[in-house]
Amino acid sequence: MASTLLSHEVSDLCIGKPPLRCLSVATATVADAITALKSSDEPFLTVWSCNHDDEKTDGNDKCECLGKICMADVICYLSKFDNNVLSLSSAFDASVSVLIPKSRSLVVHVHSSCKLIEAIDLIIQGAQNLIVPIQTRSSITKRRQQQKLLINRNVVVSLSATTATTHKNGLQFCWITQEDIIRFLLDSISVFSPLPSLPISDLGVINSTQHTILAVDYYSSAASAVSAVSRAILDNVSVAVVDKGCDQEEDSRMALIGEISPMTLACCDETAAAAVATLSAGDLMTYIDGSGPPESLVGVVRNRLEDKGMVGLISLIDSLSSFSGSSSDDESSPAGRMRTSSSYGRSVSSAARMARKSVAIVCNRKSSLMAVMIQAIAHRVSYVWVVDEDGCLIGMVTFVDIFKLFREFLDGDN
């Protein structure tokens, strides 16, 4: 039974997957990335080495996905540019490559014939997404003709950069996520019996090391959490917002209040960088939670930006806000060049909106592995926080921890 399950190829998980929308690292800027993200109903976009809109490009150039980006990457990046309008403008003009994590690749190319067990091993080694070619070459000429019709050379942002899905020789790609594989394994969960019914504390999957758990104090500045959020993007987890009030000992336990999730930030727009620069971690949770920030917090952000003289971020907020009342934005401003919405959020799919909550998804030590897996999938996250009876943080269980457990089980079964 186990051998049959693991003999499946990743192509079996690609059925119905849409082709990836991509940006070219050769031409796209941070401003292009923001526009592309706002026009997409998915939280992530891929960045590629190829640029097939360039007529001089050799058709034999290798198409390689260099990484993935989301609005959380943009917000963390822009939060560093708060001094003046010019520095913020240069941030928007920078290559999209500045948004791609440099420490390790989160995406890995695989053949469509890659075995499921090989895919699990790649995820255990650090991959978040597996890039798989979609075997179709039909209607390539028609697609390219339609794409060229969309290109308006009189605007700064090339529409082809935000809609490209087809690569050389008509190839398209999709990706497999950790969640896709977990869902697939759930259909044959009896293969791993008795593991699914056992408490997570008995299985050793609770990760509680300080190196793994990313946490910030509720009252600390949100700006101090930027590095933790960037790390959370790399690890496909979240940043716990805690209060050290469970006891009075020196190494006190931490009460889990909520979280600052990259997926929640991914549902915001770039103005959230101003909130990161001015609010506490606790207030930032409120700011990014739900459909939009409370007006009271918007006013607080504005006042603190003025107090700190952060004219660049003030200009960004004013530019986006004024766009709702006029279509004649200053083309030299970052917001004017991007032609973005005036809202404090962006349009995303219903699946992505499910993740836009600052309430932490929790379980306890006695929760069964099966319950934790279903809980994570139901909330579209790749982790579940583990708390004790007092609500104090113990650790977390991630999809990677579960993959490791299943892999060890299969190795021992052979």
Automatic annotation (TrEMBL):
Residues 322-344 are annotated as: Disordered. The keyword Repeat applies. Keywords: CBS domain, Repeat. Pfam families: CBS. Residues 354-412 form the CBS domain. PANTHER family: AMP-ACTIVATED PROTEIN KINASE, GAMMA REGULATORY SUBUNIT, CBS DOMAIN-CONTAINING PROTEIN. This is CBS domain-containing protein CBSX5. It comes from Camelina sativa. The lineage of its organism: Eukaryota, Viridiplantae, Streptophyta, Embryophyta, Tracheophyta. The gene is LOC104725894.
